[in-house]
Amino acid sequence: MAENGANMTEHDAIHAALKNNNDWAKRTASEQPDLFPSLAKGQQPAILWIGCSDSRVPETTVLGLKPGDVFVHRNIANILHAGDVNSGAVIEYAVVHLKVKHIVLCGHTSCGGVNAALGNKKLGLIDAWLLPLRSLRSQHYDALAGLSPEERTQKLVEENVLAGVRTLKQNSSVIEAIKERGLKVHGLVYDISCGQLKELETSEDEGVEKSRFDAFFTS
Description:
Elements: H1 2-31, H2 35-41, E1 47-52, H3 59-62, E2 70-75, H4 85-97, E3 102-108, H5 112-118, H6 126-129, H7 131-139, H8 141-145, H9 149-168, H10 172-181, E4 184-191, E5 196-199, H11 206-216
Helix pairs in contact: 7-9
């Protein structure tokens, strides 16, 4: 009986979601009659959003935007592995072909992936994915040691975003777009407790930018 109840709950959830979609589609078509026909012709998003898979951080809703405004890549703990073909393909398509004007790398408070990396429990396949976070934990060991559990999580969330921004700025397509057309890269943290986004300081001096260009740009 318990199993049937669980299945019924799951069925009710997707049934409600499909009904909500039908209502939303009708309402949107009525209020914005040009939106869906326009989207059917193609997309011109201004923003590439790279965020966490967490269900509490729906990027288009959080930004107050509409379908077609944001190109999206999400994964556990918004980690960027330099050699990851999945995120690499998204970044290249967004930058080279869609020519987005902004890339947002967004972390969030109460991140389960960050908390997992701050612990020492074996989790299986996800352990390999979280290695960059564990590396950051090691690099910032002294700074993290004196913090409360909540502060440690927040600190590692921010360091992970900053590391992702650095990885983005080492991507040759991103480097070229920054140089040629002023592409902007932003590091944000979303506070789940209040719904607010905070932008982190990611500016660099010219020497750092030049050394990165010399080391990572290819043509």
